[in-house]
Design brief:
The protein folds into three domains: 3-92, Elongation Factor Tu (Ef-tu), domain 3, CATH 2.40.30; 103-208, Nucleotide-binding domain of ferredoxin-NADP reductase (FNR) module (Rossmann fold), CATH 3.40.50.80; 209-241 and 245-249, Dihydroorotate dehydrogenase B (pyrk subunit), domain 3 (Ribbon). A seven-stranded mixed sheet has the order 10-9-8-7-11-12-15. The radius of gyration is 17 Å and the shape is globular. The chain is α/β, with parallel strands linked by helices and 249 residues long. The protein has helices spanning 72-78, 116-125, 145-150, 170-177, 190-199, and strands at 3-16, 19-25, 37-41, 49-57, 62-68, 85-92, 103-109, 129-136, 156-159, 166-167, 183-187, 203-206, 222-224, 232-234, 241-243. The structure holds flavin-adenine dinucleotide and FE2/S2 (inorganic) cluster.
C-alpha cells in the first residue's frame, strides 16, 4: 500500500556531473516494484518532486534514488545530509512488468538509467540473459556502470561526443553491436523513447512528464493513447511505464 512516510537519508553523494545517489531508509520499501517512483516533499516547496526508485533492499528497508540537479528542488535535495529526513509518498505508478523471457535489453538515457538497475536484478532472478545499453551526453555524465557490474552485467556505454564508449546515441550503439532480445525495457529522454518505439515491437518505456499530485487526482500528467484520440492515461497512475505502441509520446 502507498504511504506518505518520513524517511531518513543514509547517504547522498555526487556520482557524476550534477548527478547524486541518495540512499534512504523507510517502511515503504516493503511494497516497491522495479520502475516505480516516489514523490518527495522538499522543504520550502508545495509541489513534490517525482524520482524513480533505482534499487531497493527489502531486508534493510533501504532504497536508492539517482537524480540529476535541474532546478531548485533537486538542488536542495543535493544539499541534504545523512541523518536528515524528508517525506516520500510511494511507491507510486505501475512499474516495469517482469516478463518470463530468455533475453532482455535494458536501454537507459541520462537520468533514466536509475530504475533499470532493480529491473535488471529482477529479470536476472528469472534466469533471463540481460544486457544494458546506457547513453549520456559526455564522459562526465556517465554513471550506473558499477551498479550493473555488481549484478554481473557490463553495460555498453555511448556518449554523444565519444569521450567514453561508443560515439553516438544508444540506438546507433545497439545497431552497431547487433544487439537483439525478446524484450526491451527503456527509460530516458523523449527522443530516445521515440527511437525505441520505432525499432522494437515488444517491451516497455517509462515516461518522464511534469507531475503535480502523483496519485492520479489532478490530471496534470495526461498523455494520449497512440491510436484512440479520445483515450487518455494519467502517467502517474496508469504509467509511468507503458507498453511499446500504447501511448503517443
Ligand atoms: C515518474 C518520474 C520519474 C522521474 N525519475 C527521475 C529520476 O530517477 N532521476 C532524475 O534525475 N529525475 C527524475 N525525474 C525528473 C524529476 O522529477 C525532475 O528533474 C525534478 O522534479 C525537477 O525538480 P526541480 O525542483 O529541480 O526543478 P524545477 O524546474 O525547479 O521544478 C519545478 C516543478 O516542475 C517539476 N518538474 C520539473 N522538471 C520535471 C521533469 N523533468 N519531470 C517531472 N517534473 C518536473 C518539479 O517536480 C516541480 O514541481 C522523474 C520524473 C518523473 C515524472
Ligand atoms: S500528477 Fe496528478 S494526476 Fe498525475
Amino acid at each position: 500500500m502507498m504511504a506518505d512516510e518520513k524517511v531518513k537519508i543514509i547517504e547522498n553523494v555526487l556520482i557524476a556531473a550534477d548527478t547524486y545517489r541518495m540512499v534512504l531508509e523507510g517502511r515503504l520499501t516493503a511494497e516497491m516494484k522495479p520502475g516505480q517512483f516516489v514523490n518527495l516533499k522538499v522543504e520550502g516547496y508545495t509541489l513534490r518532486r517525482p524520482i524513480s526508485i533505482s534499487s531497493y533492499d527489502k531486508t534493510s528497508g533501504r532504497f536508492v534514488l539517482i537524480y540529476k540537479v535541474l532546478g531548485d528542488g533537486t538542488r536542495k535535495m543535493s544539499e541534504m545530509k545523512p541523518g536528515d529526513e524528508l517525506y516520500a509518498l510511494g511507491p507510486l505508478g505501475n512499474g516495469f512488468p517482469i516478463e518470463a523471457v530468455k533475453s532482455a535489453v535494458l536501454i537507459g538515457g541520462g537520468a533514466g538509467t536509475g530504475p533499470l538497475v532493480q529491473t535488471a536484478e529482477e529479470l536476472l532472478k528469472t534466469g533471463a540473459e540481460v544486457s544494458a545499453v546506457l547513453g549520456f551526453p559526455t564522459k562526465a555524465d556517465v554513471y550506473g556502470v558499477n551498479e550493473f557490474k555488481k549484478l554481473g552485467i557490463t553495460p555498453f556505454i555511448s556518449t554523444d561526443d565519444g569521450t567514453e564508449g561508443f560515439r553516438g546515441n544508444v540506438m546507433e550503439l545497439i545497431k552497431s553491436k547487433g544487439l537483439n532480445a525478446e524484450i526491451v525495457y527503456a527509460c530516458g529522454p523523449e527522443r530516445m523513447l521515440m527511437a525505441v518505439e520505432d525499432n522494437f515491437d515488444r517491451g516497455y518505456i517509462s515516461l518522464d512528464i511534469r507531475m503535480a499530485c502523483g496519485i492520479g487526482a489532478c490530471m496534470a500528467c495526461v498523455c494520449k493513447d497512440k491510436k484512440d484520440e479520445e483515450k487518455y492515461y494519467r502517467v502517474c497512475k496508469e504509467g509511468p511505464v507503458f507498453k511499446i505502441g500504447q501511448v503517443k509520446i
